[in-house]
Every structure is written in structure tokens, then in C-alpha cells.
Amino acid sequence: MxxxxxxxxxxxxxxxxxxxxxxxxxxxxCYPKILEAAKTLNDDQYGNSITFLAHAVYGxxxxxxxTVEVSGFFLIDQNPIYVLRKxxxxxxxxxxxxxxxxxxxxxxxLSKFLHFLNPEVFPIWDSRVAKHFGLKNNSKYNKxxxxxxxxxxxxxxxxxxxxxxxxxxxxVKYGYAxxxxxxxxxxxxxxxxxxxxxxxxxxx
Length: 204
Description:
By secondary structure, the chain is mainly α. It has one domain (10-193). It is built from twelve helices and two strands. The protein has helices spanning 10-13, 18-22, 26-39, 48-60, 80-86, 90-96, 107-117, 127-130, 138-141, 144-160, 164-174, 180-191, and strands at residues 6-8, 201-203.
């Protein structure tokens, strides 16, 4: 059974970040625009909305989109966009997806796709976030079971710690609200870019 060998500490993450305080970070400015675009999408038999959102997500990432296997999403439901947007059942829907991510063979890219459809339920997974869990190469973190374990942990973590300070700073500096899941993930992402990053972790 896959497991993480370390976990981040909340007290290490509860702080200011220059990207937020600048009020002009490209990714933070674009984030709500992609959320708004995702809300307009509807299902169709060809999965056109799936392909569109995959391109939008990869435009937000420093990676090229090469493949979108829309058939993988139809394992969820005949109306996957609708179901993913409305669900509160994270684990059930992830279980229906194939082990190989239908977007670029990447669970990092797929996590962002899922998040923009439902930011209250699906957390973003990223190579920089993976550092906090002792994972340093793609073969370790680009796995379905890895994302499942991370998502379960992050949901619980964001319920224990509301990250109210970070949410307030985003609202003040960028003018939009973020979910608790997004706040928790964002703190992991931003802290890993700091020059003094030492993982801020506890050994499991």
C-alpha cells in the first residue's frame, strides 16, 4: 500500500508569501478566470468541454498538452462535467477513473482539471507540493493512489486548519475568495519555492 513518509506542519505554512503580497502574480490573477470559464461548460457526446478545459488548464501550467482521452471521463458518467461539478463524493469518482490519467498521462494535470470544475472537493496536486511529502521524482508522485492519499489528507488538513489568514490576503490583494482546500494547497505550493525550504515536515 502506498504511503507518504512525511507530512507538512501547519505552523510552517501559516505565513505571508511574496507572490500573494505583490498582488500581481500571473497564476493567482488567472486562477479565477479559469474557474469562471469552467462554470460555463456543458457536456456533449464528444467530450468537447473536456478537451477545452484541458487546454485551458495546460495554458495555466508550464507544460505542453499532448493527449486528452475523453473516453476515460465517460467511465465516471455519460455527463462527467455535470457529475464532477456537483459531487461531494471525492473518492467514489476518483475510483471510476482509469489508473492512467486521461489528460497527458498526468495526475498533476488531471488534478488541476478536476479542481477547476469543483474547487471545494478536488485539491490540486503538483510536483512542488509533493516535496512536502518526501516525493522528488515523477515516478513517485504521478500515480492515482498517490493523488487519492494526498487528497484525503489535504481535505482533513483543511478542515482542521482553516487558513483564514491566507484566504483573507488573497481576497485583499486579488479580490476573490478561495476555498479552504485551495488555501491549504496554495500554502504548500508557495512555501516550496522559498529559498530556505526545508520541507517543514514531521516524519511519519
